[in-house]
Specification:
Trna Endonuclease, Chain: A, domain 1; 6-stranded mixed β-sheet; two-stranded parallel ribbon; 5 helices; 28% helix
Amino acid sequence: MMGCVSCGSVSCSAPPIFVILGAEPALNNLSEIWGPPQSTEVEQLLEEDIEMFIEGNPQALDKNLRTFKRQYVLKSGERIDLLLKDKEGLVVVEMKKGAIGREAFNQITKYLKEVKSESKCKVRGVIVCRDVLPIFEDFFLKKVAEGKIKVYLYSWKFNLRPLQS
């Protein structure tokens, strides 16, 4: 039986580690911090797996968020991975399995405009991804600082140790 990677407890139900891009410059490139995946399970992770986790645990992004719709189809036919809500409005969440570049920002910006025109309420955007391509780190840091979007980097850490009393 494996314990929590953060506290070591066998019974801990803490969610995987999420880091807000822009919180600290040293956290920009997760591969430099954690290195390459240590398990084939991480390499086989699907966007759907990340989506299902966030759908069931929207508070991993913000304690006030609740799941509203999954795979929401816009009038244009485009499909949003997750649509969350809180008292401030709606949050469009786009999942990306790998590292993101400018196309991810363009995609979520398009979704934000369409959801805002359909819903007439405040709409925010979140991208959940493994990393940011190094050439786009400054671009995303600027967008986060401007409040245009939030970017969350995911990581699952495999830890093998014997169970001890």
